[in-house]
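in:
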């Protein structure tokens, strides 16, 4: 996952000005980002350009004390439309899914045992509490997968894998863990509004990172399911993570100094859309998750 950090843009750009008013050097840097959405966070005095997610190159800036109207409009315009999520509460035919996966990817090898273990988990955990589901799912993927960069695993700079692909490989990077946990918990019956895949900066590692966050209620402090550690902690106990944005099957939120504000839906997030299309090809039933 590629992410660029730019200091000082907030001093250059007001909420009425456009990208053309940025210094040429900063414009060049912005155009090197996969997805150009600089976000200024007052607390850290830093502007963050988020990773590749939309095919079109766009920009938006959250200005101190203010959420500009043009950002809101751009986000809604660009994020509306397209794509269906798998019917996450329907029964999944793992015999068909395994056959389709083998046809798509070749022999599953040891991945078949990991996929079978996932199927068993989803069957065994349907009647337990959400707290137990969170812990079991988090531990399962943290143990079943080992961390590997996309460039080494998929020979691409930024590749979002389906849970089947991750279990087939027995590996993935941060977003692959978060995606697999999200779909598992949704299938177990956890409502979409309680789950968000959250893009953060991991401050200790000084790099982009993704986690799954769980909200027991809309205003609750979220719990963080992280590939970097097994314990599930409240976000208030994870000062090493700086949130940037979050999404699920129902929407996209900007976080940080601008607040936790929904700015649209996630149906035009191209890499997310690719995951859903690949899951449909793998045999997961296609229907709206909204």
């Amino acid at each position: 996952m590629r992410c660029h950090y730019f200091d000082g843009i907030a001093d250059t750009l007001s909420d009425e000005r456009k990208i053309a008013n940025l210094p040429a050097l900063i414009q060049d840097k912005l155009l090197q980002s996969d997805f150009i959405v600089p976000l200024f966070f007052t607390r850290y005095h830093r502007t963050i350009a988020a990773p590749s997610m939309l095919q079109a190159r766009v920009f938006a800036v959250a200005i101190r004390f203010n959420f500009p109207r043009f950002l809101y409009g751009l986000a809604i315009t660009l994020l509306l439309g397209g794509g269906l999520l798998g019917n996450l509460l329907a029964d999944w035919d793992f015999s068909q899914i395994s056959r389709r996966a083998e046809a798509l990817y070749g022999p599953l090898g040891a991945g078949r045992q990991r996929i079978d273990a996932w199927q068993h988990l989803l069957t065994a955990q349907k009647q337990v509490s959400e707290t137990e589901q969170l812990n079991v799912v988090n531990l399962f993927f943290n143990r079943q997968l080992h961390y590997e960069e996309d460039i080494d695993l998929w020979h691409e700079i930024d590749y979002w894998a389906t849970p089947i692909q991750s279990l087939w490989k027995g590996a993935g990077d941060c977003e692959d863990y978060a995606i697999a946990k999200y779909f598992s918990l949704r299938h177990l019956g956890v409502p979409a509004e309680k789950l968000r895949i959250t893009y953060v900066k991991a401050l200790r590692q000084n790099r982009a990172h993704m986690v799954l966050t769980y909200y027991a209620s809309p205003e609750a402090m979220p719990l963080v399911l992280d590939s970097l550690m097994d314990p599930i902690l409240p976000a208030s106990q994870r000062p090493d993570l700086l949130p940037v944005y979050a999404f699920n099957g129902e929407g996209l939120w900007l976080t940080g100094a601008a607040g936790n504000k929904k700015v649209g839906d996630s149906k035009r997030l191209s890499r997310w859309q690719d995951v859903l299309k690949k899951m449909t090809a793998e045999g997961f039933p296609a229907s709206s998750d909204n």
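note: Residues 157 and 279 are 21 Å apart (CA to CA).
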